[in-house]
Each structure stands twice: as C-alpha cells, then as structure tokens.
Design brief:
The structure is a homodimer of 417-residue chains. By secondary structure, chain A is mostly beta strands. Chain A is globular, with a radius of gyration of 21 Å. In chain A, strand 12 and strand 13 form a beta hairpin. The first copy, chain A, has one helix and 34 strands. In chain A, the strands form nine sheets. Chain A has a four-stranded antiparallel beta sheet, with no helix packed on it. Chain A has a four-stranded antiparallel beta sheet with strand order 4-5-6-7, with no helix packed on it. In chain A, strands 8-9-10-11 form a four-stranded antiparallel beta sheet, with no helix packed on it. In chain A, 5% of the residues lie in helices and 44% in strands. At the A-B interface, loops of A face loops of B.
Chain lengths: 417, 417
C-alpha cells in the first residue's frame, strides 16, 4: 500500500469527498485490475514492470502471454523512473524521481516496502551479491545504499569534491563485478568506484575510504553511464564537452581515457531537447553504438581501439540506441518533438531498415532476453506495442496509462542492469 | 513421482517385498529430503538443477541461499544428461542418456511429465519462443521435437544423408535466433539448420523441407557444437580431423568454414579419454577459448579472423573450458585419469592462476549469472563445492549423490543454453 500522509480535512465536505473517492476508486478499479489476485504458483522468469509515469503506478506483466497481471499504485513521482530486480526475480525495486525507493513483490502484486530516501533521485543499481540497493541522487547529491531485505540504510556516500564542501549530483550508477558500484559526479567531473564489503558501520553509515576509488578530471559534466555486458568497461557520456570517458575496470591503474573527443567538431550544435541515455548499447562484431548528444547521429565505435568507425544519420536527436540481444538490430528513439518515431538499424550494414511512427511519446524499448520480441512504450497512445524482431511486424498492443520504462525480470541475471 | 511400470509379483513374498520397500523408502526419504514440501511463493530466478548421475535423480537447488530444496527421483539413466529451462523458469527439461525426456516442475518439486522418446539421446534445446523442445539422438539418430506443454510429438526429423538410407547420430544441438535449431550429423559430416514455423503436419509429424537447410562436407565427424552468446556463430568440433567447422548464421550463403585446421599437426596424438565439451566458451576482448581434442591444451582463437592466437598448456586433456560471465576467468576440468584437477586461467594473460584438487570426478561447472560464484561437481566426494570467483576460496560444500551436470534457471534467458 502507498505510504501517504493524508491531511485530515476538518470540515463538513470531508465525508462527501471520501465517499466520492471511494466510488471513483471502486469504479476505476473495476475498470482496471480489480484486486490483483495474482495466480498461485507463479514463476518469475518471464515477468516485468511497466512504469505508468503520470499516475505513480506500475503494471506487472508477463512477456510470454503478452498480458498484464496487475496494476500496483502509490509509487509517487515516476516521471523519471527505473527498475532493478532481486536475484530471485521476485522483487522489483523502483527508483522514482522524488527520491522514492519502492520494493514491489511481483508474486503478491503489491508494495512490500516504500521509503523516501532523498529529495530527488535519478536511478539505482543492485549489487552483484544481491544484498544492496544503491540509489543515485540529484539533490542533495551522493549515493545511498540500502539493505535489499528491509530497505534499511546501510551507508550514505556524500559526493563531495573540490574543497570537500561542495556535493555533486550523481549519475550513471551501475553495479560491477567484485560487488562494486560505479557512478559519475556530474558537478565534480569524477567517476567513483565503491566496493561493498561488510561489515558496515551501523552507527555512522559510512563506507571506509579504502573501499572508494575516485577518478578525477574524467571530462566535463558526465551525465550518464553504462557498463559493458561483462562488467569490464564503464563509459560516461559527457555533456560539457564532446566525447565520452572510458574506464577499464580490469586496469584501474590506467585511469580514465577520453574517447570520441570532438565528435561534433565544426558542427553547429543543436539545442539539446533531451539527454540521451546510454543504458542500451550494442556490440556486434567489435562495434558499439552510442547516441550522440545534440546531433542527429548514432556514433559507431570500434571496441578494440575505441576509435570512431562511422556515424549513422538518424531521424532526429537519439535518446536510446538499444541493441537486440542477438546483436542484429539497434532500435533508436528520439527526443521531442520527434518522439513519434522509431528507427531500426542493421548492426552489420549500419543501414536503417525500418521506420515506425506509431504515436507520440515513444519513450522506451525492452527486448525479450532471447531477442524474439521488443516492447515499445507509446505514451500518448496509452499503450505498449510488441514487435517481432524477425518480421518487424506488430504482434500485440497492450493498454497502459502513459507508459514509460519497461523492465523484464531477466535483468536480474545481467551484470550492470 | 517416478513413472515406472511395476511388474506385479504374484507370490507370497510380494507383501514382504512391498513392506521392505516402504520401510526403506521411509528411512531413505527421512535421510534425504522428505516430502519435497516446496515453499509457497517460491520465485524461480535463482533455482537450479543438479544431476545425480548414478541414481536417476536430480536436486533442485537455490543459488542465493546455497541450499538444496528437493530431490526428485525416477529420471532413468542420467549418466550423460543435460537440462534446459522454460522461459518462465518454472520447468526444467532433462535429457537422459536412455532417450528419456523429463519435465520437472520446480515449484512443485516433482515430475510433471516423462516420456521415453528414443533409445539413446545426447542432449536437447528449447526454441527461442519457448514452445518447442528438440532432442538429439544417437540411436536411431535424428532429432525429435516436442511441445513444451505436454511433451506431445510435433515432428520427427530423420538425419538421413548420403544415399538417403543411412541415418546419422545427431550432436551439438542448440537453439538459434529466428526460432531455429542447429545441430550436426556425426556420421554424415553435415550441419543442419531447422526453422520451427507452425502449423505442423499433425499426421505426418514432418517439417517441410523448405524449413531445413543442410550444409554438406563440414568436416570429419563433428562431435559437439556451440553457438555464440548472440546466436551468430555455430561452431562444431571435429573428431575425425583437427579443427572446427564454423557457420556464420548471419551469412548462411557463405557456407561453413574450417578453422584451426591442423592444430595438432606434427604432434603425436594421445588416446582421447573423454571428448571435450564445447558448451562453455569465453570471449574476452576478441578471444575464444576452446578445449583441444587429445592434447593438453586450450586453444585461443581471435573471433574476428578465427585464427589461432595462442595455445595454453594445461594439466591434462581438457573437457570443459568455461568462461565466467564477467569474462575474466576460464575454468578448465580434465578427462580421466586427471579428473581430480581444476585449473583457472586468466583470460587476459593466458596464465594459470590457480589449481584445485578437491577430489576425483570433477565433472561440471556452473557460474552464477552475475559471476560471483562457480559451482563445481565433485562426483567421488558426493558433493558440490561453491567457489568465490574473486577470492578463489571455497564458500560452501553441498552434499549430492554422484553429482554431474549443474544448470541454473538463468539459462532460460540465454540464447543457445
């Protein structure tokens, strides 16, 4: 159940208001997903979560039957939300924009715990051992770490930089092998690598400084990050300059390297309508595909040399460039006002093989883990469209209220997701 | 419960026998895992199956709690068994040496269906869409396909070759994107690619020939196969000659290519005690690690050129060379009489960084999907040893009766596993 402090209304209208709410709730719930009677003996391998960004609700879905099992409400501000899963694929941890961290029990179809961990968060990660949830914060900045079981606080890691009085927004938070979290300091131009090694100080909620490795001057304003599927390379996109910052976690002694510097050199930068996300990337052969900031291009990089190989002209400013698990396709969506378009790139020829315009507000894509389907959220249509990746034809449309992020439980078994 | 046809004993000893069996069963079950009271609300993301090869039984385990949940008996001859999982991670399909195909319900801790599909099988696969189980047969050869739900027969695909009267053993069966199965004909020196596209002929149980693509003369006696994690490259190991046969499924028009030909040239071949398996392979940077046949070597191949880069001297004849999901380590076990040894290779330096000799009969290894642990079966110790991949220290020992294969449900979400 949502944890909300209701202001008690001390006037005669109160009862009428409550009755109206009750009637509305009854009507609404009968129209949607009445009691969330989850089936008994529900396996968790093919479940997922869809964020309904306007209503603070999520849908629990099944990606085998292409159906909605349940709507769970009361998750606060989900206008920029992301999800990670417990290692048993039973619990979804939803990071909300308002600093809310909500643990959803997929088997019960309800919230099992919800906390407001800060004023403004931007994403999170779960540790390799499945014991810790880290949340990245804009305001007041820094990273907080919680126990998976009860969301009790384990540690607060302030992102102080410079003269150690300023604190930075933290972004691009991922898990990495060795039970580590890696993230970037947007204001501090740093990348931090934190090892989760118990026991922790239960009074101070601190991480020993020996377990935090900091990389300074990684580039101007890292705004998001990704980690390669094997957990070796952490890459932060830069907003303050062209290029990305690369950290080889197998060789921390080498520090960070700037890649794709000056990719926009000589070009007139466009106003950036929405920052691209780096979460989905493709490696096909030796190529990584990355959305450029402020350009109508997807950049292709050789992952051996980390040099630019090509740049693919696309419809508009890319937001996500996501690879299918079979590496054959890169699906790209775009920033406002071109967020009604979806393009599919062939990873081998770099050609655009398909373009869709199913509706406005194409916000996210999620592939089934063996690559046969991709689920696409179309916000203004209030629906999810499922496509077959072989035929590039629609398979099904599924109703959802202003859907944004889509997250399948198979992420539980992937490094960095 | 096991499905066994008891011959009714029509003599006075019958009741005594039955009582003895009852007492034994009671004793035995109280010593092992009494009634398999599986917990309610059991998520399936961190479960797994361990084959107990001598007893025709399997253990259902949990790789978060490092514990055994249940023993399921009555699976027939498991002396060479493998497992795939349904896409919801609820069902395990066990392929036994006697042609048995057993569907186990992990939530209930029992067999939900068991058939004897042929006289002698060697492994199987589940289709990308999760609807079909294919089984590869030695005797009488060929591949049979069954419906996932009830194990009803969908198709029989005889492996006829040459003058179309001879049938071949089929090996190296894997699933591939596009809802395909790919496998090799040991006697026929062929690789077949079969697309599962319904509707199927319910009277004839055939696959239209247009849906079967055959590659001839791929090399002498392909004995096992693997597919890369993205489903692009199928590689068959050759027993009749040095080398492996490579098929690029993105370019079937190019046919197969021989790679690593003559890798044992000029060397005196050792007698082959056990054929190596190709299932686990590593790509770290651009290197694949493959066990050599009849040599004390692991071959390192560049996955761009498919040329040999190096060969690593190991303790004995390798059986499995398996990569950790973080690509940092290759764990290698060996054929009899050196199957008491386990070596760990650093994937970057190609150096052996650790050697274990925990007991005889080290038969299989399975990594947790985020790479923190590896489970190793030690047959003659009647135990599984769990190692931490960071510290290379033992984490736990778990009792199991003559364990061989170990399979975690995260395989449900991987192409080719």
């Amino acid at each position: 159940m949502p944890i909300i402090n209701h202001t008690v209304m001390q006037n005669p209208l109160r009862n009428i208001f409550i009755s109206a709410v009750a009637v509305y709730s009854l009507l609404f719930s009968s129209l949607s997903f009445s009691a969330c009677n989850m089936p008994n003996d529900l396996p968790t391998g093919d479940l997922g979560i869809i964020i309904e960004r306007m209503d603070g609700s999520v849908l629990i879905i099944n990606n085998s039957t292409l159906s909605v099992l349940c709507r769970v409400e009361g998750l606060g501000d989900l206008s920029h939300a992301s999800v990670v899963f417990s290692r048993n694929a039973r619990y979804a941890f939803v990071f909300g924009r308002d600093g809310g961290l909500t643990k959803i029990d997929l088997l019960k179809g309800k919230i099992s715990k919800r906390i407001l961990q800060s004023g403004n968060s931007i994403g999170g990660a779960i540790s390799q051992d499945g014991q810790y949830i880290a949340v990245s914060n804009y305001e007041p900045g820094g990273v907080n770490v919680f126990a998976v079981d009860d969301l009790s606080l384990i540690a607060k890691i302030p992102a102080t930089y410079g003269q150690s009085t300023q604190t930075s927004k933290t972004v691009g938070l991922v898990d990495a092998p060795g039970n580590q979290f890696v993230y970037s300091l947007y204001d501090g131009n740093e990348i931090w690598q934190v090892k989760m090694a118990p026991p922790f100080d239960k009074n101070e909620f601190t991480i020993p400084s020996a377990n935090i490795k900091k990389y300074h001057n990684v580039g101007k304003a890292p705004y998001d990050g990704l980690i390669s599927a094997n957990g070796r390379y952490y890459i932060a996109g830069l907003f303050g300059e062209d290029g990305l910052s690369l950290l080889d976690l197998w060789h921390p002694e080498k520090g960070t390297t700037k890649i794709l510097s000056h990719y926009g050199k000589g070009q007139k930068k466009l106003p950036v309508y929405k920052m691209p996300h780096l979460e989905g990337w493709a490696i096909a052969g030796n190529h990584a595909f990355l959305p450029a900031v402020g350009l109508h291009e997807v950049l292709v990089v050789d992952t051996n040399t980390w040099k630019e190989v090509s740049r693919i002209k696309v419809h508009s400013q890319p937001v996500f460039a996501m690879a299918s698990p079979d590496d054959r396709q890169i699906w790209v969506n775009f920033a406002f006002p071109d967020n009604n378009t979806l393009q599919v790139i062939d990873s081998e020829t770099f050609k655009i093989i398909k373009q869709f315009q199913p509706g406005k507000g194409i916000l996210h894509m999620e592939f089934t883990p063996r690559s046969e389907h991709v689920w696409v959220s179309v916000r203004d249509n209030d629906e999810i469209i499922v496509y077959d990746t072989q035929t590039l034809k629609e398979v099904k449309r599924i109703a959802a209220k202003k859907p944004s992020g889509i997250f399948f439980t198979s992420r539980a078994h992937r490094i960095g997701l």
